[in-house]
Amino acid sequence: MKEKWISLDNKPSFAELYDQLFPLNRETLIFLKNNLPTGNILDIGCATGAYLLELERDGYQGKGIDLDPEMINIAKQKAKQKGLNSKFMVGDMSNFHLSMEVDGLYSIGNTLVHAVNLSVARKVVHNFYQALKPGGKCLIQIINYDRIFDQQIDHLPTIIRPGIFFERLYQFKEGKISFQARITLTETEEVISHTVDLLPIRFNEMISLLESVGFRKIHTWSGFSKDPFNQDQSLQLVITCQK
């Protein structure tokens, strides 16, 4: 579960900075279009809704779920401003309910590793499976934690945007990772910080979770490209699979 960012009232929130820090990536969008069936889709960990709204423009109908109410409010505002119909709701990936099954589901942005343990991660993946129609497709993206652990990598690349310096630091502890995110507003040198424990799911564990709930036709990729996944070199693990 995501924790609230530590910030003062006069600073922008993480949700307000999100689209600047993580602008929509065309390669990611194209990968989603190529691997999700057109129809009803679900975005788990949708943040401010950028990808779901773009997919709607190409004929998808969808709903986005995120644990952060401020993210959801921004997503709703963007949908209204763009005249789009995607629905957004506050929800927990380990406990959500839909009125109908969907044709496709995706969870990107390293969302799954916010599960507190492998048992909860399995429950989440089972929820993904249950949400899909027979033959429905699922797409999941996380960081490649085999590379992180085996090479003891203690940070992700710093993100630099106009007026923003975003550091992402790792500390290893008993099979988990303490993840500290620090946003420095360069004009004022004020800092917005956030620390949360992540469950670093390795490749073999991820495949086992998917198979245990019934997913088939499992394919793995090195990020949102056509390159195959490499446990030693890939920065990300992207998985496509089918119910």
CATH topology assignment of the largest domain: Rossmann fold
Strand proportion, as a percent range, falls in: 25-35%
Secondary-structure element order, N to C: HHEHEHEEHEHEEEEHEE
Counting H and I runs of at least 4 residues, what is the number of helices?
7
Query: Helicity, in percent?
Result: 25-40%
> What's the name of the CATH homologous superfamily of the largest domain?
Vaccinia Virus protein VP39
- The CATH class of the largest domain, by name, is Alpha Beta
Taken from the alpha-carbon principal axes, the silhouette is: globular
Q: How are the strands ordered across the major sheet?
A: 3-2-1-4-5-11-10
Return residue spans where pLDDT drops below 50 for at least 5 consecutive residues: 1-9
In CATH, the architecture of the largest domain is 3-Layer(aba) Sandwich
**Rg, Cα atoms, Å:** 17 Å
Count all strands and give the number. 11
Please report the distance between the alpha carbons of the first and last residues: 26 Å
Q: State the secondary-structure class.
A: alpha/beta
Oligomer: single chain
The biggest beta sheet is recorded as:
7 strands, mixed
Task: Give the count of structural domains.
Answer: 2
Average pLDDT, to the nearest integer? 93
